[in-house]
Amino acid sequence: MDNIRIAEKFNHMAKMLEFKGENQFKTRAYTNAARTIKGLDEELQVIHKEGSIEDIPGIGKILESKIVEMLETGTFEAYEKTMDEIPAGIIEIMNIPGIGPKTARLFYEKLGVQTVDELSRAAREHRIRRLPRMGEKQEEKILRSIARQKEDKNHGRHPYVLAKEIATEIVDFLDLCPDIEKVAIAGSLRRKQDTVGDIDLIAISKEPEKAISYFTGMEKVEEVLESGTAKAAIIYPGNFHVDLRIVSRDSYGSMLQHFTGSKEHNIHLRKLAISKGYSLNEYGLTDESTGNLTKFSSEEDLYENLGLEYLPPELREDRGEVEAALRGKLPQLIERKDIKGDLHVHSTWSDGANTIEEIVDAAILRGYEYIAITDHSHSTGVANGLSDKRLLEHINAIDKLNEKYDGIRILSGTECDIRADGKLDYSNNLLEQLDIVIVAVHAGLDQDRKKMTKRIVSALENEHVDILAHPTGRKFGKRPAYDVDIEKVIATAKDNDKVLEINSSPWRLDLDDINAKRAKERGVMLAINTDTHAIDHLDNIEFGINMARRAWVEPDDVLNTKDLKQLCSKLGIPK
Ligand SMILES: [Zn+2]
Ligand SMILES: [Zn+2]
Question: What are the residue boundaries of the Polymerase/histidinol phosphatase N-terminal domain, all occurrences included (predicted)?
């Protein structure tokens, strides 16, 4: 058991004890210990072997014995006992953002609420507003949180970037195995979905059992869930479930295709095969009349045999790609080499780590024709946002730098806050002096749908605005999207000729693939930006491109694939 999971169990224990109304010192001991454990550099497992858990500040004898119990059994007795005493639904209620143990207890004692559904009903019937410390507002907030939690499809999933890191580590390791000829990533990770559930790997081997014991014997494996003759499943640190399937070389293409998915895409392919007199499964194509099985060593051959153009994995979601491939009309998906510059970057002028010069040098290194410096506006106080006066100095500094540099154009810009009432942080007079104006919402995120939509729409109606950054505000592991009518935002962008951003930060990735595809279909131009706060982030562009490819985006749909001249004319920048 790793430190993170031990800390989580302690946090969970604290919540349950608080719900039960146990004394504060007891609950606080658990939360403090959880915090300490999360901050440790070394795994408790190792510390335990050296016999020194008790030396960790804040962890006494009692907690030490519980940690040791967890290391040995995966749980501890007091925890299991407390779990049994509290209805399962209550634990779910305490997991709703904004509802702590005390509030859950209030609902339980006063209203007899024991499940999320009962809580939702109580809110709809206005029984909550009559409770102490509650009101109409709290009631609405609870309903919104429940709805969001249900919508939150990311539950139990990992951001792409983390899954990719783990998968790469494992693949590199398996590559060293003498009994493995080739290993590949399949599943949603290969389709570059924004979040990934399990990691699926396929390997070619003539010695499946040896290959599997190599895999399950990796040092970091926490648990072996399954270890068969052709398949194994393990848990890897960070709660990653990893599946490995061993295949022979002649059916590698069929297997890779099958386990790349998606499920819907595969169903569509099976129907297509049936219409041609075949049946399709992970082993190949079977001729229904003769019973002959054709295996495929490459995916390309498989698709070709079905009469299809080769389908990039990012498109395999049954969103029209099979029909398009049949007609030979697949989109020419955008690639990294199409990107000519980055239009959303922060410097030391606000909360970035690098000077404008350092950023420009990094942009030149990446072969960019232009780079926009878009520091924060003054509402974003924590981010050292620029006052009116400093913005003018910022523009001046960029003017001067442009004289110094050849072969790259630095655009003066802002990421201007859209205030709660929809007004912008700078006057039109100031915005007019900038090359590029990005607008974004950073505070007041729990406004209701109507207010939030109106707020963003009114910003997009400003004539000086060019781009809406991170249009839904989601951050993996932190918060879901804010409540906004994205259709309305897309329509407003279309009517006002504004650009919507695909934010390449691996923790954001909004617009997501579905909304970006919608925007593209409505004829709205997109920008793929990194929102760089340190020059290494410039390479996050890869993640934004993944999202764009999943959204069928072609180079022409994207503002920052234009060359400098086209960009200037699009943004109305005088030459
Ligand atoms: Zn922002
Ligand atoms: Zn930003």
Answer: 341-420
